[in-house]
Amino acid sequence: MWQLGSRFAATGSLPAPLAVMSVIGAEAQSGVLFVNLAITLARVAASFALAMVLGTALGVLMGRNKTVDRLCDPLLIVLLNLPALVVIVLAYIWVGLNEAAAIGAVVLNKLPNTAVTLREGTRALDKNLDEMARVFNLPLGAKVRHVFLPQLAPYFAAAMRSGLSLVWKIVLVVELLGRSNGVGFEIGIAFQLFDVTRLLAYALPFVGLMLAIETLIVQPFERNVSRWRPPHGA
Amino acid sequence: MELEVSIARKALRTASGKTRVVLHDVAFSLRQGEICALLGPSGCGKTTLLQIISGLDSDFEGQIVLPSPHRIGMVFQEPRLMPWRSVAQNLRLVGSSSENELAEIVAALRLSKHLDHFPGELSLGLARRVAIARAFAVKPDLLLLDEPFVSLDAALAARLREELLALVLKRKATTLIVTHNVEEAISIAGRIIVLSAAPGRILADMTIETPREALTQARAAKIKTDIVSVMTK
């Protein structure tokens, strides 16, 4: 279908699959493709990990403590609704065109979403099990591992899934706007040259990488945390 | 272990902002190893009383005296198992029992075949047995049971009662069992404390012959009539 479409499309707007493959091949051979993919992946990993850890900590704190919740809630609402672009540009202006600003901007875009999801999870914690753990004098470590975390895990998995897709997208924008390497930067170059072949040559391996991470890491984790549920949801 | 309960007043704040007194002048003490049933109509504050004794609720006027250190084994009305852990893990995680002691408890409650199951795969009767096993796994000095046989069919309840009684006698734990069922109380306890409808106060405190074999049919019937007459007065 792609092949067919490329025959009828205006010159340059939809290149043939083979043309794209040959650019992917050339970029792979020179190693530039892998370097850029690795750089983008590293930025995704760093900002994703930071957003999950900080967002979870904030969410759990807000779910358990009403004062913290009241103090942080307006800020969360602002961050949730602020366009990603505004956060990114402000980060680059205030912090400078550096890695810290890039990662920080992505973290700020993802963090409120994680915090809100984990706050819901914390509010939904089973009071009955909490009482059980208190009567049986479960040590704090055991209580966290066996009572709290299994209840939060599905919320964590949901935040992870929606978070990963958001972080991928925002990292590319951040790279386009203020970094001189990574998949987003290469796509920016391709845009300036109106080179769709090059654009696709970077976008496709990137999409492949995202799918691989989703199926190899995110989905197995989700299955693992819901393993104890009976198959028919009794 | 001895338990001394003296509650002058326990009130709950309702959603509409009113206060409702649930317990009023409830005072009694249990001797080491005594098995006592707390009998009363629904809503008379029996569960609240267990919450107070277990330390989960400290918002009341009065005091609970327990020697320290002590270990409490509790069976809630709902089994309250950790659904994401197998039966074996549920028992091991709370317990201080050795593997041998645990195996004995598991055998006494006929749970050997279910150790690898998850709580979601168990019937209510089985989940209750696991909850009872868990309470014994902590080697309790004080055992608190909240309607452990409610909504089980009569035959199953009777069998579970026998198994529970055997474990209690072996462990020699001081036991307080909350129930609204008169026959159940008579069949298991050496002492019955009858609470009134809310606000709960003590209507009667009677001792029953132990061991069970000493209790004649006629005597059991007499106790039952006495209790019913006290409760309906």
Any overview of this molecule?
The complex is a heterodimer of chains A (234) and B (233). Chain A has ten helices and no strands. With 234 residues, chain A is an all-alpha fold. Chain A has one domain: MetI-like fold (Orthogonal Bundle), CATH 1.10.3720.10. In chain A, helix 5 crosses helix 8, helix 8 packs antiparallel against helix 10 and helix 9 runs antiparallel to helix 10. The longest helix of chain A is centred in the last third of the chain and has 39 residues. The model of chain A has no long low-confidence stretch (mean pLDDT 88). Chain B is α/β, with parallel strands linked by helices. Chain B folds into two domains: 143 residues, 3-Layer(aba) Sandwich (Rossmann fold); 63 residues, no CATH class. In chain B, 35% of the residues lie in helices and 25% in strands. A six-stranded mixed sheet of chain B has the order 5-6-7-3-8-9, sandwiched between helices. In chain B, strands 2-1-4 form a three-stranded antiparallel sheet. In chain B, helix 2 packs parallel to helix 4, helix 3 runs antiparallel to helix 4 and helix 4 runs parallel beside helix 5. The longest helix of chain B has 18 residues. Chain B is globular and about 50 Å long. Chain B starts with a strand and ends with a helix. Chains A and B meet through helix 7 and helix 8 of A and strand 5 and helix 2 of B.
CATH topology of the largest domain in chain B: Rossmann fold
Q: Structural class, judged by helices and strands of chain A?
A: mainly alpha
Helix tally of chain B equals 7
Helix and strand sequence of chain B: EEEHEEHHHEHEHEEH
Classify the fold: give the CATH topology of chain A.
Answer: MetI-like fold
Low-pLDDT stretches of chain B? none
User: What is the 3D shape of chain B?
Assistant: globular
CATH architecture of the largest domain in chain B: 3-Layer(aba) Sandwich
Give the CATH superfamily of the largest domain in chain B.
Answer: P-loop containing nucleotide triphosphate hydrolases
Global shape of chain A: elongated
**Total strands of chain B:** 9
CATH hierarchy, class of the largest domain in chain B: Alpha Beta
